Amino acid sequence: MPLNLIENPWIPVLCANGARRVIAPWQMAEPGILRPDWPRPDLNVACYEFLIGLVFLADPPANNGEWQRRVSPDPQRLRDRLAPLAPAFNLLGAGPRFLQDLENLAGPANPVDMLFIDSAGANAEKNNADLIVHRGRYPRIDLPLAAMTLYAFQAHAPAGGAGNRTSMRGGGPLVTLVDPGGGLWPLIWANTPCGAPGKPDDLPWMRPTRLSDAGQQTLPPEGRVFGAEAFFGMPRRLRLIGDDEGVTGVIQKPWGTNYALWKHPLSPYYRMKPGQEWLPKHPRAGHFGYRNWLGIVAQEVGSETSERSLSLRDWAERGGEATVIVAGWAMDNMKPRDFTLSVQPLLTLSDEARDWLAGMILAAEAAGVALCEALEPVLAKGEAREAEREAFFALTEDRFLRHVQALKSGGDPRDAWLADLRGQALRQFDALTEPGLDQRETERIEQFVEARKKLAGAFAGFDKRGRDIFTHLGMEPPAAKRRKRHER
Asked: Rounded to a whole number, what is the distance in angstroms from the first to the last CA of the chain?
C-alpha cells in the first residue's frame, strides 16, 4: 500500500500506559502519547522536528497570545488543517515525492544504507576503512522507516563529497527542544514558532530543484530569517528506489539547494563578531554538561555573538517549568564521531543570577586550564591532560547543579563554588603526584611542590589564571585585598 505521510498511520509511539501504537501525524494531539518510538535516538529527535514543522506549516499560532489560548490539544482541528497538505506527502509514486527531487533521476542506485548518517561513505567502502561506521546494514527498509530516515538525513545532512550539500544548518547541527513534560503534544506545541499557515507550493519538492552548481544560494523569505522550508529543507537531490514492500536504494545527484542566511528555530547560533553572519552551533563529541551551557541552554547576558534557539527564547514568554533536550551528531567533516542526547534544566533567573551563572561556568573553564597548566611536570601535553580537564568538569557537575538550585532560590553560591573548584583541582593534582612521591628524585619533587603552590595560588587570585577566575565570578581576589591592606 502506498504511504502518504499525512493520511496514513506510520509513526511509532510509546504511550503513557506502556503500550505501543502507530499513529498518523494528526494523532500527535491525542492524549496519552509520550514520545516517538523509533529504533534510534537520532530518528526520534528528527521525528520531533518533523511534527513541529507540520504544525508550523499547517496551523501555527499567530503570536504568543494565541499560543497560550491553544495550549489544549485539538486533534480534529489539526486533522482538518493537515488534510490539504496530503498531495505533497507521498513517499513514492509518479508525482511529487516527499523530500525528493521533482525530476525522475536516472543513474546507478546507492544502497539505502546511505540515508543513515553513521553509515560508511563511498570512500570508506572503497578503501575498506569502515571500521567504526559500517556498510550494508540495511539492504531494505520499510516505508515508514525510509520516510523518517530520509527526513533525518535531509535535516542534518553531513558533508557528502563534491556538490553534495550539507543541511541548512551544516552537517550534524545542534538541536535544542523545550520539553514542558506531559507527553508528545505539549512538547510539539512548546516548540512551534509563531507564523502564518503555509501551503503545499511552499515545499521545495513541489518545484524543480534550485540547483547550486554555479554558486546559486537560496535565501529565506524576504524580511524573515526562516519559513516553512526551514523544517523541510532539501539540500540533497535524491530519489528513493522501492515499492510497497520497502525501499532498497537511493539515486543521488549533486548540486541540491544551497541555503544561506537561514536561522533554524530549533538550533542555537553564533557569530565571530557583531554584524557578521550567524552560524549554527554543532555538538562536540563526549558528555554534554554544564560547561557547554552558555549560548545553548543558558543565556549569555548582553552577548551579541551568541544566541539560543528561538524555541528556548520563545519559552521565556510562554513560561512554565521545563527541561531542554539537547541533541545532534558530532561530526568530523563527513565522519560521525558521537551522537549527543542529553536532558538539561531550563532556567528562569533574574538578570543578576544569569550573570552569576555565566561567571560560574567561565570560572570553571579558567580553573580547568589552571589545572592543566599545573600538570605540566606530571603529564605530557595532549590527550592525558585533556582527560584530566574533562574529569574535572564531570566531577564538579553535581555540585554545580546544586548551586544552580541555590541561584533559583535567590542565593549567592559563588564563594561555595570557588571552594568546590579549588578542592577538586587540588584533589586531582594530588591523586596524580602523591603516589610514590618518596621514591622520586629531589628535583622532581620540587617541581611538583612548585606546581601545586602555583595551582593553589590561582584560587587566591595570583597570576593571570587566578585573576580570570575571580573576574568571572565578579569577586575581588584575596591577594588584592591583602595588597590594599598593606598599602594602607
From this structure: 88
Q: Tell me, yes or no, whether 295 and 361 share the same domain.
A: no
132 and 215, same domain (yes or no): yes
Number of domains in the chain: 2
Going through 422-469 in order, the beta strands assigned E by DSSP cover: none
The residue from 316, 334, 363 where one domain ends is 316
Looking at residue 14, what DSSP letter applies? E
Does 166 lie in the same domain as 281? yes
Is the pLDDT reported for residue 6 higher than 90? yes
3-state secondary structure of 336: strand
Residue whose C-alpha is closest to residue 311's, from 7, 24, 118, 67: 67
Dist CA 69 CA 367 (whole Å): 47
3-state DSSP assignment of residue 252: strand
Both 49 and 188 in one domain: the answer is yes
> How far is 16 from 19, CA to CA, in rounded Å?
7
Which run of H or of E encompasses 327?
Answer: strand 323-332
201 close to 292: Cβ distance less than 8 angstroms: no
Whether pTM > 0.70 for this model: the answer is yes
Q: Which amino acid is at 188?
A: I
- pLDDT tens digits along 201-229: 999 999 999 999 988 999 999 999 999 99
- Relative to beta strand 246-253, strand 110-111 is antiparallel
CA distances from 487 to 461, 475, 476 (A): 18, 20, 16
Instruction: Calculate the average pLDDT of the chain.
Output: 92
Cα(425)–Cα(419) distance, integer angstroms: 10
Which H or E element spans position 435?
A: none
271 and 368 inside one domain: no
Give the separation between CA 431 and CA 486, rounded to whole angstroms. Answer: 36
The whole-angstrom separation of Cα 180 and Cα 32 is 15
Cell numbers for 139, please give them.
Answer: 539492504
- Measured distance CA(264)–CA(191) in Å, rounded: 12
Residue numbers of the domain that contains 200:
11-316
Pair 239, 100: CB distance under 8 Å: yes
Dump pLDDT digits (tens) for 45-69: 999 999 999 999 999 999 999 999 9
